[in-house]
Design a protein that fits this description.
single chain, alpha/beta, Alpha/beta knot, Trp Operon Repressor, Chain A, 2 domains, five-stranded parallel sheet, 8 helices, 9 strands, 35% helix, elongated, binds adenine
């Protein structure tokens, strides 16, 4: 997976991404990252300015079409194809695990990070294939959102997670939240690890975890249960939980 991030703050992207699991994946060559400074494509007459007043008036400045377009052309020419271009904006499709999985299939992904009051709509129409929001709130720019998307997508790239199963057995993989986890010591601040996890009975542990996932999802994100793939036993557990509603 090769990421190409068009931004006014390349150092923010590079510093933010070169840590932990994603940093290691980059060192191993599983993930490549370049941050391209849109300012380098400013029109010479405007020195390095890439923003201007909005037509029609109003507060703030707008990123101009031409520097963004030239930046995109430089990336697509170098990589030899028009890769999917993701514009981070609160107006986009809300990012989720399904979209992370889908984007992880691509060889290259281009990200466009906006600042100021937005980007001239004409260049958005011309180069952007996906508009993506990371949630219903407004950030000062697209960089943090691009990093969130890259982090979630990278986990889905084969080899990035050393434990091959951990990408599957997690919150949202089948529209259920993850079960609670425990590690040593067995008793901490007077709280014991659930006995079943110490039993060594794999089948019972699996069932308990599944039940906990269903319970957590019901308590915290009940709307996810509509999409969850529940088998007969799962549905029975859910019915029992709903019948004893005071428990939740
Ligand atoms: N840019 C500003 N706010 C954003 C958000 N919520 N998601 C994606 N990009 C953004």
């Amino acid at each position: 997976m090769q990421y190409h991030v068009m931004t006014l703050f390349p150092e923010m992207i590079l510093q933010g991404m070169h840590t932990s699991i994603i940093g290691r994946a980059m060192d191993k060559g599983l993930i490549g990252l370049e941050a391209v400074n849109i300012r380098d494509f400013a029109e010479p007459a405007r020195k390095s300015r890439i923003d201007d007043y909005p037509y029609g008036g109003g507060a703030g400045m707008v990123m101009q079409a031409e520097p963004v377009y030239r930046c995109w052309e430089s990336v697509t020419t170098r990589i030899g194809h028009k890769a999917r271009c993701v514009y981070l904006t609160p107006q986009g499709r809300v990012f989720d695990q399904q979209l992370a999985r889908e984007l992880a299939q691509e060889e290259d992904l281009i990200f466009l990070c906006g600042h100021y009051e937005g980007i001239d709509e004409r260049v958005v129409e011309e180069i952007v294939t996906d508009q993506v929001s990371i949630g219903d709130y407004v950030l000062t720019g697209g960089e943090l959102a691009a990093m969130v998307v890259m982090d979630a997508v990278s986990r889905m790239v084969p080899g990035v997670l050393t434990n091959a199963l951990s990408g599957q057995d997690e919150s949202f993989s089948d529209s259920l939240l993850e079960y609670p986890q425990y590690s040593r010591p067995e008793v901490w601040h007077g709280k014991s690890v659930p006995q079943i996890l110490l039993s060594g009975h794999h089948g019972n542990v699996e069932r308990w975890r599944r039940d906990q996932s269903i319970l957590r999802t019901l308590q915290r994100r009940p709307e996810l249960l509509e999409k969850a793939q529940l088998d007969k036993k799962d549905r029975k557990v859910l019915q029992e939980l709903l019948a004893n509603a005071e428990e939740i």
